């Protein structure tokens, strides 16, 4: 270590795993955006809360920025280290620390993968219900930092609903123990909820106590072909009225095209403009009959033109792959991503305006969109033509994003539904938050992180 600051860090924390190898710097200095060139000072892998505190105190003393790093599956540049920051990877802090059968809580370290949390809950015949396609690689600390949502928000809400307590190291190295798993705690500001969704700009989550719940009854998965955009919300309204929904997701024919090219199986003989994959309770014959009635009603109304109900777990997984495999299938095309939300009631009008805007502004680009239509969250992916310079591509997309922000504002929506602001969406934070709100956010950060070392440049 030729940098004297890093030599001092090793002297202060002899057991700390630290690397300046080029491969480590590149791998840990970026997230899925791939837009910025990684340039971290080093990568540190603390193995304990004490080591995290030591690293933060060292960074504060030397004015070195810290980028907390989990699975780095984010899509907003929130885990990018491109300005000589120290990447603080939580990969080694990945244990289950305890299970309380009375409180039905699971206490874990932040580097544990979401799928491992789900498996640990299942071992106790319980459920951690937050779920999305990156479950095998994303980490619970990152989920908390972005208040991750996913495919079952209709029934279970976002990550916020399932965090009973947090331990957090602030920008001064102080350890906070927030809420301690209490169900009721009317003792002033709930700082736990301030940390959730803060994108690592206030502190580093070093321990989380998660609430578990009972598993749902047996479910059924149905894939529907929908002929027109205005039918999507009609199908959703009918499904919510007739079925106990767990998930309701949609995607376009272009999305299906890319997933099929990536190895998925074609569900229908013909192409259709839109598709819906929905999961719902089907624990008895009555529920199954109601699902069939729902399908036949939608078919009769012309809202649906074809459909299939999974007859096995393998087929259910195959149907879900059509939706969950979209992001992975698009990755080789270096997509520019928008992650937006509006109130559920505003979805039809917004989608009409959005579709018209995208068609007019991207006549030669492949635009793929899909989303959690049941909670008002749409994902827009613009694929980069192979021959187009990346800088020119991003500039064109950012121009269209500015127009999209204006459309969102008319519908009271948000430029970031579940991926955070990071670096990508920072120019448009003012479209969602007032000047007074942003001033308060800056003031809060100054208290938690007076030297400005926590994930600097992100969000604010």
UniProtKB/TrEMBL annotation:
InterPro entries: FAD-bd_oxidored_4_C, FAD-bd_PCMH, FAD-bd_PCMH-like_sf, FAD-bd_PCMH_sub1, FAD-bd_PCMH_sub2, FAD-linked_Oxase-like_C, FAD-oxidored/transferase_4, Oxid_FAD_bind_N
Keyword Ubl conjugation found: no
Alphabetical list of Pfam families matching this protein: FAD-oxidase_C, FAD_binding_4
Ranges in a coiled coil: none
Cofactor: FAD
Keywords on record: FAD, Flavoprotein, Oxidoreductase
FAD-binding PCMH-type domain location: 36-215
Protein family membership: Belongs to the FAD-binding oxidoreductase/transferase type 4 family.
Entry-linked PANTHER family: D-2-HYDROXYGLUTARATE DEHYDROGENASE, MITOCHONDRIAL (PTHR43716)
Protein name: FAD-binding oxidoreductase
Organism: Luteibacter jiangsuensis
């Amino acid at each position: 270590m030729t940098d004297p600051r890093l030599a001092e860090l090793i002297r202060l924390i002899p057991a700390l795993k630290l690397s300046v190898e080029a491969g480590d710097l590149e791998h840990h200095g970026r997230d899925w955006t791939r837009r910025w060139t990684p340039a971290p000072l080093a990568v540190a892998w603390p193995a304990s809360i004490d080591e995290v505190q030591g690293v933060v105190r060292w960074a504060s003393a030397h004015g070195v920025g810290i980028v907390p790093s989990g699975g780095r599956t984010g899509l907003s540049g929130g885990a990018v280290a491109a300005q000589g920051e120290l990447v603080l990877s939580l990969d080694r802090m990945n244990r289950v620390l305890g299970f309380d059968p009375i409180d039905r809580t699971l206490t874990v370290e932040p580097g544990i993968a979401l799928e491992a949390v789900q498996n640990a809950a299942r071992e106790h015949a319980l459920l951690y219900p937050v779920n999305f396609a990156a479950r095998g690689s994303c980490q619970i600390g990152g989920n908390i930092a972005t208040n991750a949502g996913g495919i079952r928000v209709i029934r279970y809400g976002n990550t916020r609903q399932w965090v009973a307590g947090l331990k957090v190291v602030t920008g001064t190295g102080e350890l906070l123990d927030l809420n301690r798993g209490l169900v009721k705690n009317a003792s002033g500001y709930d700082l736990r909820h301030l940390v959730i969704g803060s994108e690592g700009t206030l502190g580093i989550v070093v321990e989380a106590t998660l609430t578990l719940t009972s598993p749902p009854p047996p479910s059924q998965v149905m894939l529907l072909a929908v002929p027109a955009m205005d039918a999507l919300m009609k199908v959703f309204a009918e499904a919510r009225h007739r079925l106990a929904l767990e998930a309701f997701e949609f995607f376009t024919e272009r999305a299906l095209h890319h997933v099929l090219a990536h190895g998925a199986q074609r569900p229908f003989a013909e192409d259709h403009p839109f598709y819906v994959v929905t999961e719902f309770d089907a624990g008895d014959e009555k529920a199954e009959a109601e699902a069939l009635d729902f399908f036949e009603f939608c078919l009769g109304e012309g809202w649906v033109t074809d459909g299939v109900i999974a007859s096995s777990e393998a087929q259910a997984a195959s149907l879900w792959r059509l939706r969950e495999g979209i992001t992975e299938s698009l990755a080789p095309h270096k997509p520019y991503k928008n992650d937006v939300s509006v109130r559920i009631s505003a979805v039809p009008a917004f989608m009409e305006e959005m579709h018209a805007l995208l068609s007019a502004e991207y006549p030669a680009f492949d635009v793929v969109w899909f989303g959690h239509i049941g909670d008002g969250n749409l994902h827009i992916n613009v694929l980069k033509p192979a021959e187009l310079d990346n800088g020119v591509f991003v500039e064109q997309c950012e121009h269209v994003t500015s127009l999209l922000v204006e459309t969102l504002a008319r519908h009271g929506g948000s430029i970031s539904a579940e991926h955070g602001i990071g670096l990508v969406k920072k120019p448009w934070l003012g479209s969602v938050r007032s000047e007074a709100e942003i001033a308060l956010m800056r003031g809060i950060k100054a208290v938690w992180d007076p030297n400005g070392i926590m994930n600097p440049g992100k969000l604010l």
